[in-house]
Design a protein that fits this description.
The protein is of the alpha/beta class. It contains ten helices and twelve strands. A seven-stranded parallel sheet has the order 3-2-1-4-5-6-7, sandwiched between helices. It has a five-stranded parallel sheet with strand order 9-8-10-11-12, with helices on both faces. β8, α5 and β9 form a beta-alpha-beta unit. The protein is globular. The model has no long low-confidence stretch (mean pLDDT about 90).
Length: about 350
Amino acid sequence: MKQPVIYYFCPDLRGVVGGVKTMYRHVDILNRNHFSAAVLHSTNDFRCDWFENNTRIAYVRATRFETDDIIVFPESLLAYFTDAHNPPKLQLQFYRAFSRNRHKFYLNELSKMPARKVIFNQGVYLTFKDFDYSKEYDIPYLRRDVVATICISEDSHNYLSYVFPRIPIYRVHLSANKADFYYQDEKKPQIAFMADRNKDDWNQVLNILKIKNLTSGFRLVPIKNKTEKEVGQILRESAFFFSFGKAEGFSLPPLEAMICGCVVVGYHGGGGREYFDPAYCYPVEPGDIIDFARKAEEAVTAYRNRPSAILNKGKIASERICLKYDARIEETDLIKVWSEILETNRV
């Protein structure tokens, strides 16, 4: 009997996207644990090259899907499942050939394949992205051939369980790449932040700190268009990481920063609430600019007065995060989840 193949349908994105890296990692984990899995791209010969990988890749046009296979879909593209959200046939063919986001225009076709479907929801606040509430949609989560939903945080599980109380929902813990994200105790007076997250907010906070002369003596390092290795190096060297991500399924950058020993100040984004402990970081509710500035002032002032004490917070953060979000835990979760999905939904 043929072993079912688990296809993670992945956007063809050249830029750095943490959720894409997670899909690749999950496929690698499944294959080395005797599952059959592949990342599924819509553009022939496409492979993400901003991080090192030898992940098994399949392509939509070259793949024949069987009834016992499973296609895994990302949460942010699900509106394209529906006929209503797709252009007419000739226009659809044009978009598939020439659009920069051509992967979107394969969703509807893939949704009609005989394979079973699973939703991998890494960004729970994108669950209804592009769904117009005034229109009638075939909600993918409620389809009979969508056999499960996988999410990545307690916050996401609570959200989905409330909205869809009758569907099977599984949670998998994430981890960071230990080759690039690891603790370093030698720190520079440096504040790192993701420059592509909520520019309006970080621009306000940094200007407030500048006006109050609180960033004097600190180097501000915006992270944008960096490889995973480059990001890891910046975080290992930085005393602080300012987190500006709002409404996120998990919020991986501050977790990676904590592993590297940064003292994190800022937004937990919802999904990060479970690991933003005031014992070792400075949580701020998303959008509260003045509280962000006050917490940043508290942190940098403490660093100036007694750097060893504030840097010890970063060490504690690294130790606790590494225990809870270890790669072995992610692997155990993933094997358990997929074993149960395949056993419960045998064809």
